[in-house]
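ok so for the tutorial part 2 we go from a plain amino acid sequence to predicted structure tokens. step 1 is just haveing the sequence, like this:
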Amino acid sequence: MRQLNAFFPWILTAALLVTLSLLLYQYKDNSNSFTTQLIKHNLISTMRIHLLEATEAEKNAVLAITDEASATFAEKARQATDHVESSRKEFDAIIHQENFPPETNKINEFNVCWSQYKKLDETILGLAVQNTNIKAQRISAEQGIQILEEFEGHLKNLIHRNSHGNQCNNISMLSYEALTASLKVFALHKPHIEAADDQEMDKIEQSIKSYDASASKAMGAIRTISGLADDKDVKAAETVYQQFMKMTGEVLQLSRMNTNIKSAELSLGKMRLISSQCQEILDNLQKEIHVQGNYSLPLSKK
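step 2 — the prediction. this is what the tokens look like for a chain of 302 residues:
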């Protein structure tokens, strides 16, 4: 009994050391768990913020009216997307180490949504920076009126220099027909630029071809009038009209690409849905982390 009493302090000390070690291990484990949950929470918050930034910049790129502005916003959108991707990879690595099914399932769900977002985002930005509809409108507005005024001026000179007899009436009538047809072609630039589908553009282009044929026929008839085959204003009017139709062809070509309308439709339609879906998944994932962490963290507000 005396021997047992002699060892009792040693036994008690050993027990206390074991108990203290267990408590320290448990504290360390809980501390690591808390830190991990906090990191995950912050990563999700960062992803949500940068996703909002990417979506906003993408819409600004679509709405911008100059190539420079579109390119600037497109770059901002891509930078924000890169930030989301960086946080996603870091979060993904933590989740797969923990192998916690509820969180793993949700991050896998986000990965699918995020893949769709990135693919569509690059398509939209690629279209937005081309600005073909805006370029077509600018060419039409800046060059169209100027060319037609020059065309009209040559036709007026032709009429004034031949202002006598029945020949004048014929020249006036044909000049009026050529100018009217060219003005109708010009008037169809705008609806073609604003057209949303190829079928509508096809109909407009058929009308343009018809008016072009009328103008060309009238100009050809003027050339057959006696003494006008080599007339300086007739030649100048024909040259200017050819410039006008060449410009019209450029407008139609840019308009056909329809990049501004296509990017706007995708941005306001499909992209808006995918972006909202990605944000919803991240919100649910953040709530799951909050519940599993067994501690109070402020949930981010939508």
